[in-house]
Amino acid sequence: MIIDFRIRPPFKEFLSMGPFDVKASGFDPQYPGQMYDYIPPRSVTTRDLSVFMDEMDAAGIDYAVVCGRVSSNSSSFSKGYVSPDVLYELVNLYKGRLFGVAALDALDPAAPKIAERSVRELGMRGISIEPGWCSEPCYCDDPRLEPIYETAESLGIFVMITMSYLVGPDLGYSDPMRLEHVVSRHRKTAFLVPHACWPHYSSMAAVSFKYPNLYWVPDFFFYLPFMPSVDVMPAFNTALKRQVLFASSYPVRGLEEAVRLWKEKAWNEDALQLSLYGNAARLLKLFINAD
């Protein structure tokens, strides 16, 4: 069984963002960065949701988490707005297979109320913020974000905080030390980090060893062979095996490609299965064996 913890399918407002709309997103193939060697799957070129669901089946992905987006200050490639209501519409097309995570502008004074409505009325499983791409770029430990973290704790939901070299004006916005300030104050809340603070993997591992409520969602920074990295597999196979989640980050990579490259890493079988579904099932409260 496989749970993909971060996808953005070809549906409504998602289609205005790269790679679905390469021309509008400003993608430059001469300087591809993390998009190097990218081959768009058929669901991207056709912009067809039913084709995407077929690709989920072909990749052996049983469940997936759909993350919204509020990124007014990002590059044009990642800029977009996908509301909780759009997510609600999408996940209800495939109820029980897709799960929604509401995106918030962390500096919006209404964000806590949006989070509460998203969970209580729309059934979202968690919330997502991208501090470096807020209406005003900020750090994850900015005191103005505390009402969001407190709301998540009161609702008993997880918080996704995207952090890497991409998200924010400079590398300081992906510093795991700032993340430590947050997870240490809210130990009852699970914090999931798409991009896993790349390239700060060593510091991210150190913070994760201290706080079991901190989860890696390393997505393509981890499984793409050309992305330079310290070797985190010894930790993923042992002390951190319950804190790692598989995510394709589709459409940045195709589903089958992501699953194949993830499995090609030097996993032991127990840690691999936890990363593919056990840890995710525990966070989503799915009634499957999550041990």
From TrEMBL:
UniProt keyword annotations, A-Z: Lyase
Residues of the Amidohydrolase-related domain: 27-286
Domain of life (superkingdom): Bacteria
Keyword Lyase: yes
Single GO molecular function: carboxy-lyase activity
PANTHER family per record: 2-AMINO-3-CARBOXYLMUCONATE-6-SEMIALDEHYDE DECARBOXYLASE
Protein name: Amidohydrolase family protein
